[in-house]
Amino acid sequence: MFQTMAMNSEFTKDNSLISSIRLVFWVGAILLSFITVFYIIYANSFLLTLRRKELGMYMMLGAKKKKVAQLLFIETFGMGIVSIIIGILVGMLLASVAGNFLMNGMEISAKGSYASVYTPAILVTAIFFLILFFITGLMNSVRLLRKTELELIREDETLDEVKKSKTRIIIMTVLGVLLV
Fold it and tell me: What is the mean pLDDT of residues 84-108?
């Protein structure tokens, strides 16, 4: 919806009120993009951690590491494509509902210039997520290729030691108190 509102110049030029808040939609789209990147990378890392034992077992049973990494990449990218298609369809529906709600709330008329299906916004969204899922698939493959079969299988048994720096703790505490 942010992309549709921010990129549709016909809609914003017909409505002086909307054109004045166009920047808000751009900032919202950029902020949402950053949040999405970090969320997808974190969720993907978490899911890969859950599957490490399974992937290690495939390799122990004779599957080549490169083939397993390739399969993981195809799986990640394929699921990304499916989620892009579903997300765009649901997004068009929600953009229509939210756009109508926004226009009714602001008591403005769209005069036929607002469309929840705005091709440039859909293309930008699809390209953004294709690149994101491509990068995540590569990250998964690289993480898998760097580990041995035993490291993958016994990953949950190893303890991660957290290094505690007194200086860092003091700085973070002071910053926390000052920012609150």
Answer: 81
Predicted TM-score (pTM) of this structure:
0.72
C-alpha angle 148/151/153, rounded to 5°? 110
SS3 61: coil
Alpha helical stretches, state H, the chain:
2-7, 9-14, 16-20, 22-60, 65-106, 119-146, 149-153, 166-179
- Cβ partners under 8 Å of residue 37, min gap 6: 132
Dig out the tokens for 160 from the structure.
């991660």
How far is the CA of 134 from the CAs of 78, 144, 156, 161, 173, in angstroms? 10, 15, 27, 32, 38
Cα–Cα separations (whole angstroms), residue 91 to 25, 44, 174: 15, 22, 42
Q: What is the pLDDT of residues 128-178, one digit of tens each?
A: 999 999 999 999 999 888 888 888 787 766 655 667 788 888 888 888 888
**Separation of alpha carbons 114 and 5, rounded Å:** 8
In contact, 137 and 68? CB cutoff 8 Å: no
